[in-house]
Amino acid sequence: MSRDNLLGSVSRPSRYLGGELGSIHKDLTAVAVTCALAFPDVYEVGMSHIGLPVLYQILNRLDWVAAERVYAPWPDMAEQLKNRSLPLASLESERPLGEFDIVGFTLQYELSYSNILGMLTLAGIPLRREDRDDRAPLIVVGGPCAFNPEPLADFMDCAVIGDGEEVIVELCAAVRASREAGEPKTVLLKRLAAIEGIYVPSLYEFCWNADGTIAAIRFRGEGSGRVVRRVVPDLDAAASPTSPIVPFMNTVHNRVAVEIARGCTRGCRFCQAGFICRPLRERNPDRIAGIIEESLARSGYEEVSLLSLSTGDYSCIQPLLQKLMERYQEDRVAVSLPSLRVGSLTPALMEEIRKVRKTGFTLAPEAGSERLRLLINKGIAEEDLLESARHAFALGWRLIKLYFMIGLPTETDADLEAIVDLAARVKRVGKGTAGGADVNVAVSTLVPKPHTPFQWERQIGIEETLARQDFLRRGLRTRKLRLKWHEAQLSFMEGVFARGDRRLGRVLERAVELGCRFDGWRDHFRFDLWQQAFADCGLDPAWYLRERREDEILPWDPVDARLSREFLLGERHRARSGEYTADCRDGSCCSCGACDFDQVRIRLAVEGTSVEHMPGRDGRKSDEETPCKVRLRVRKAGRARFVGHLEFMTLFHRAVRRAKIPVRFSAGFHPAPQISFPDALPTGMESEAEIIDLKLSHDVSVEALATSLNAELPEGFAVLAAEQIPWKTPSPSVCIRETVYRLNLEKNFPADLKERIEGFLKADRVPVARHKKGREETVDLRAGVSDLRLTDKVLEMVVTGGNPVLLAAHLLGLPPGQGLSTELKLSKVDVRLGESEEA
Question: Residue-wise over 484-522: b if at least 16 C-beta within 10 A, else e?
Fold first, then answer.
């Protein structure tokens, strides 16, 4: 069975199509190194991650490297691949993963580790490093979780520590040089270990004490064995994709994402990202504006997101945001700031933000009491929080979401009660504002992470977590406030692997054998199977949550995150004594060790961009409009038939934006492009006659419009015809009188089909049972059929309504509920419009 035939039997087949706008297809036989960039989660999550597209662009700019993508298949697709003995393959060329030179996994979340092993298994790649020969791909990991690579030590060849933009090129160059020299993998690994920022676990030997702690870590290579984090010193010189890969389906974050800063100077003691990304490096506003302009033009997205650990702290955020709003307001492009901190929320900034987001406003005090906020170095006064909430409610927000952590060191019931009191006070400041005021409270359990001052702290267990969640739930209920929480078992497992060692490898392998996959997804997480895996391997997972001695050897000690141990310990002690460590943005150095004060140092942006410097809009003002209406006939064929109807609508909207078609927008709070589509086409069906109407702000050449759109539509979609129609012509769904479908019957041709058709046409009613949304209902198939014709093993169905798939299945005598085989090509070949509406 071909992979295309699989797509008709899995949910959301557009996850597996490839061929998206912005994707890059190279001749893999013409390059020296092939690299599969693997994300161990489902497509819509992986496509929302900003790091993988950066590496994809960097590698594909090299003429001697080809980089392709692969994501974890959803369980239904994984089962299909397994049953059909088909290996997991890349999106771009469908090359099996085992045939790449490098397979690089990004580690964003500890609970994705089971998916890494699952993907290797589906690819037919031996899991354990020692079981792979020199022909197997080099297995590389990177990302924030790689700062403790040890739980995956048995399965990977090396880990990239820190910023990957430069080191990934050096890694590929080392692979090329090693292959040209005919070296075995053992020699290649020594080459890689000599590159700054690459950790090779096979070169480290761990010795254990009787109590399970580490007695010694011995490095068996050259040098000290300390792997220093790589840092890109200048963000302006770093790559940022300006030709985004535009997915067919709606992903978690469907937008242009621009990293405006990397690193943070706040020093929140629980925040791993804030420590391992030091020092702060900001991108220049002019560079940001250029990236946004190019990315919007090439993607057709309707939203821009300005990303950093604390976007509101960006030096030029106020003028940049204001100018972006002015530039894109008429284009109906929203600008969002997903990471805002209370101390950075000025009234002027909030005025700009409210133009984009009015449904919800998020504040993260992290702790309810002033004592704990000092302990974590949050630096937020309660009055500042209340003032921000007061402004938000006054500016029209109706809901504020508050995020807190539980399980902070030294936390007591009084600190938990302070969360309840603070949430109630936030709600109270909104009393009497227009539209009312509401507050939602969300809590997560502290997971002490490596390379933070809390890396030695104890993590509370499951029973403690549940008890504290219940305490908050009861307290908030009395104040008429709602609580959302992170699952205690998920936090427990995250904590085990965050600070675990290489002995967890056999537990991970056993859990995957038992069926663990997609552990970060609540519906798929099987804590019982994980408990069995730990029991089978003779390990107590709770042992990994314990407090660590300050002189203890830690599994991640060979990794140098450019933070001195003395600094981290000092911050831990300052936390216990309630001492605040000032923000180093203003030059108050805290001697963390991240800067060399030459190349690696804090770099702040300098304001310089303006609306005048940004490219202007190429359009007419509303008072110059000469509206017209254009009707298109569009083809949807090949793999494009697996793009669902809502996905097709979004895809078409973006193509219209990229083609700069002067489409009109509706009025109201959420203006929408005035594009009318036909009724939904069943997923998997081809069509030669998708009728789409566009309302335009002024006359255009329909030939030029069709040409422009065809240049922007992905493969499989094409405008076949375009014509102007009267302005008051009803929408396509109203105009279509009949639809003609054609079914290829080369296979599974029933001998009595002709008699079935004759009987069907003679009947007054043909009641058929079907299941819809879990319920069985009876429909009359005959009522929606005008004609049926059978010629040369092709069935033509002329219908006025109803489900053509259900009709075809009934005529072929298929059992109730059984769909059509993908080998039976049912397609929509024509529509017949009402005479009064035809143009």
Answer: ebbbbbbbbbbbbbbbbbbbbbbbbbbbbeeebbbbbee
CA 441 to chain centre: 24
At 543, list the tokens: 């042992």
Split at pLDDT 50, 70, 90, the class of 536 is very high
pLDDT at 312 over 50: yes
Q: Could you give the CA distance from residue 600 to residue 613 in angstroms, rounded to a whole number? A: 30
Exposure on the CB side of residue 830, measured as CA atoms within 13 A: 8
DSSP one-letter code for 579: P
Cβ 658 vs Cβ 302: under 8 Å = no
Q: How far apart are the first and last CA of the chain?
A: 44
Q: Which of 96-105, 248-257, 426-435, 671-680 has the highest mean pLDDT?
A: 96-105
Q: What is the mean pLDDT of residues 549-572?
A: 97
| pLDDT tens-digit series, residues 24-68 | 999 999 999 999 999 999 999 999 999 999 999 999 999 999 999
Q: Residue 618 pLDDT more than 60?
A: no
Structure tokens at 288: 């940001």
pLDDT at site 435: 67
How far apart are the C-alpha atoms of 369 and 409, rounded to whole Å? Answer: 13
Task: Give strand pairing partners of 705.
Answer: none
Q: How many CA atoms lie within 13 A of 529 on its CB side?
A: 16
Chain centroid to CA 29: 31
CB 126 within 8 A of CB 115: no
Instruction: Please state the φ and ψ torsions of residue 483, each to the nearest 5 degrees.
Output: -120, 135
DSSP 617: P
Q: Are 804 and 665 in contact (CB under 8 A)?
A: no
Rounded Cα distance, 619 and 703, in Å: 19
Structure tokens at 483: 């609580």
- In single-letter form, the type of residue at position 74 comes to W
What distances in angstroms separate CA 264 from CA 68, 231, 273, 309, one per listed residue?
32, 14, 8, 6
Cα–Cα distance, 723 to 630 (Å, whole number): 6
Q: Is the dihedral of CA 373, 377, 381, 387 positive or negative?
A: negative
Tokens of 600: 């690696």
Distance between CA atoms of residues 618 and 640, nearest Å: 31
Per the CB < 8 A criterion, the answer to whether 330 and 354 are in contact is no
Contact 790, 754 (CB under 8 A): yes
Q: Which residues touch 206 (CB under 8 Å, ≥6 apart)?
A: 214, 216, 217, 501, 502, 555
Three-state secondary-structure class, residue 268:
coil
Contact indicator for 307, 258 with CB cutoff of 8 Å = yes
Q: In whole angstroms, what is the distance from residue 611 CA to residue 676 CA? A: 34
Per DSSP, what are the bridge partners of residue 686? 827
Q: What is the DSSP letter of 638?
A: G
Q: In whole angstroms, what is the distance from residue 576 CA to residue 336 CA?
A: 37
Higher pLDDT, 617 or 640: 640
**How far is it, in rounded angstroms, from Cα 603 to Cα 619?**
38
Average pLDDT, the chain: 92
User: Parallel, antiparallel, or unpaired for β 227-228 and 559-560?
Assistant: parallel
Helix 413-429 / helix 462-478 crossing angle, nearest 10 deg:
40
Phi/psi of residue 430, nearest 5 degrees: -90, 0
